[in-house]
């Protein structure tokens, strides 16, 4: 497995976290499984699949092949991914409010949805995808996607104090009082809640829980042998029972069901977010 991380261009820092190029040949990587359970995360993604398409299974449905370029909205339920035999993708990780700023769609309307990027952004995405598939190096792929994102800057909805406040919440691992974050956004708590549904897609308290859960899940992927009780306290949980509650809510299973041997065979997407 090869992955290359690229920091955003300075002009993109306010709405892009990173660009990652991931290349996995599962026919040679015998230790890795192409089947991955993707649990909810606070990060939003724009993904370009350059080789095998990705298939997605939601709950009890069948696997459905997704488009070559997709926009993933706020997720509340886990999905199962089939990454194919050769998984080559460019992943743009967006900052908390950036998907709303990019699309102009209230995110509460697209919870648990993903979309063919062409249908949302337009045919320009086809040209980006074609250029990415023709690129000869990861650096060239990065240059293509960051140049495209730079061209979108003038179309972005303006940043608000709310956006900076949510960055503080994410930076604190979800462990800030909501009334404090609302004050940083220069809003009353009620105004803050309405703005959160629009720009994040979730209520502030639910989003803070998701951030904390995401950090805990990421810790376990990065350190499979770490005890859950240690992860719970590292991530700001009052006790292990609160961690178990969030696992059941977001992942649909308890932490004890996430086995070390399964993590070792996994692509560990959460760790790649960093």
Structure in words:
It is a single chain. By secondary structure, this protein is an alpha+beta fold. It folds into 3 domains: 2-155, Jelly Rolls; 161-204, no CATH class; 206-272, Arc Repressor Mutant, subunit A (Orthogonal Bundle), CATH 1.10.10. Helices cover 41% and strands 19% of the residues. It has a 6-stranded antiparallel β-sheet with strand order 1-2-9-4-7-10. Strands 3-8-5-6 form a 4-stranded antiparallel β-sheet, with no helix packed on it. β5 and β6 form a beta hairpin. The longest helix is centred in the C-terminal third of the chain and has 19 residues, at 204-222. It is globular. The chain starts with a strand and ends with a helix. The mean pLDDT is 91.
Name the descriptors.
3 domains, 41% helix, Arc Repressor Mutant, subunit A, alpha+beta, four-stranded antiparallel β-sheet, six-stranded antiparallel β-sheet, 274 residues
